[in-house]
Amino acid sequence: MTTTTDTQLTIASLDGLTWDDPVRKAITSERTRLDQAVAAYQQGKRALYRSDGAPQFTDHDARLAQLAATTDPAFNEAEAAITAVLADAQAAEEREATFDPSDRPTPDELARANSRALFVREDAETLPISDLAARLREVADGTDRALLFVWGCYAGRRLAAIEQGTERPGPQQAPAIRQLSDLIAQMRARFVNEQAITTAKRRQEVAASFYSELRQRHDDGADGFARRTAGLRSRYGL
Average per-residue pLDDT in the chain? Predict the structure, then answer.
């Protein structure tokens, strides 16, 4: 490990995360792991010096370097844990922002959507793109979530076919295709859980910040690692 100057870092707090939030729990657990590694390092380091402060062994530097390396496993395990919760938070945001037919509408909305599916599917697949966009505008301006859902599904499939090249409309249809895309996005947004997305974003921010702290502490060397790790408790309110 290399040694760097001790700089004060700006750290995101755990504000906005509940006490049972997975990111908060992971950070709490990993801070404990780091504390234990630091305590073991400091205890071992004291044993390398005589009571007058002079090195106790002729190979002092080698022993100190070997001891410092014992903090690496704690860092590696903490890094892996924080990387995992960061990936989970990123996946959660993507999941919430994706139109998922399996869990977005309520059972009643899904039943009403299914009752209209056959007719909507036929129109979504066969209407000229400009006419389909006009129909979606009517639906998007309404409040019937069952219609928003079923039209969003089948119009979305039509748009996917265009984007993937299965359907090849002429260049004069480009404005209508853009309108179709905008309307589908607008309809899908009606089913998005904005609070869940906000929480997922906050989890990513905190996890990424903590990860950055881990990196800085590790690169500081064992002494810097110990010194900076002690600051995690107050910075994160743990």
Answer: 80
**C-alpha gyration radius of the chain:** 28
Q: Phi-psi category of 92—alpha, beta or left, where left has phi over 0 and alpha has psi -120 to 50?
A: alpha
Q: Give 105's DSSP letter.
A: S
Distance of CA 119 to the CA centre of its chain: 39
pTM: 0.54
Query: Over the stretch 58-109, which tens digit does the pLDDT of each residue have?
Result: 998 899 888 888 888 888 888 888 889 888 888 887 877 665 554 567 788 8
Closest to 163 (Cα-Cα) out of 181, 143, 137:
181
Tokens of 46: 């004291």
Q: What is the DSSP letter of 54?
A: S
Tokens of 230: 């002690």
Are the CB atoms for 159 and 180 separated by under 8 Å? yes
Ordered by start, the domain boundaries in the chain are 22-97+215-230, 107-191
Tokens of residue 177, six digits: 């295709």
What 8-state DSSP symbol labels residue 155?
Answer: H
Question: DSSP character for 49?
Answer: B
